[in-house]
Amino acid sequence: MKANTGSSYITTADGTQIFYKDWGTGQPLVFHHGWPLSADDWDAQLMFFLGQGCRVIAHDRRGHGRSTQTVSGHDMDTYAADVAELVKVLDLTDAVHIGHSTGGGEVTRYVARHGTGNARVAKAVLISAIPPLFMKSEKNPDGVPKEVVDEIRNGTANHRSQFYKDITIPFYGFNRPGATVSEGIRENWWRQGMMGGIKAQYDCIEVLSQTEFYDDLAIIDVPVLVMHGEDDQICPFLTTGAESVKLLKHGTLKSYPGLPHGMPTTHAEQINADLLAFIKA
């Protein structure tokens, strides 16, 4: 297995530079961020699992964070292929892939297409994730209405900076009675979002809302932990997390009453403990 480098870039087959962090030694844990964020969204997890003796790896999806602001390649197959190239360069085996929100879709597609029938993947975790399908359709009648998705598109295309500030309120459940609002968390979300390219982030809305993962989930043959807040205002629990686990061969659902979409940040201690238990089991 190739030694880690702290942080660096790989160059994919189409010339895109993908930024990644690679810290520590031990079993590799690969973290996949949500829209429109970056590897920095995993700070609380990277620090915790580094302290647990794990090797922690997190990348910025193409067009996001410090990776190339590409005009093309914004589809789930390409996202998964980029991860496969990173895994190959780092020569990772027996890895646990952990994805939040859109990153959960990326994990699902990567493991289904590139992580079965080999020693690359040991387990996977889907946190507040988009599979099996985000947007309302005939197959997903209780999904998020197209009108809501169009509001996200409009906000991103026409007033991205303000929209990115506003969306942090439901994202972290800061609009719930008794919630303690953290301006630092909100500003960090905004910072990460504004680091990325608007074209990539706009295109990614279609990817996260319309990509279907029914077949991918059924293919996956490693243990998968599905973690989802029951008060998720972004990816509704009943149509995403609760449905995903039904399609997995070896899936376990852990739901959290009252927790928001951004629970890896707002409830990091609880999420980290449950992740550790699953990884060590």
From TrEMBL:
For the keyword Cell wall biogenesis/degradation, the answer is no
Q: Which GO terms describe its molecular function?
A: hydrolase activity
One Pfam family name is Abhydrolase_1
- Ranges for domain AB hydrolase-1 come to 28-261
* Annotated keywords: Hydrolase
The answer, when asked if Cell membrane is one of the entry's keywords, is no
- In terms of domain of life, where is this protein from? Bacteria
- What protein family does this chain belong to? Belongs to the AB hydrolase superfamily. Bacterial non-heme haloperoxidase / perhydrolase family.
- List the PANTHER family: HYDROLASE, ALPHA/BETA FOLD FAMILY PROTEIN, NON-HEME CHLOROPEROXIDASE
What name goes with this protein?
Answer: Alpha/beta hydrolase
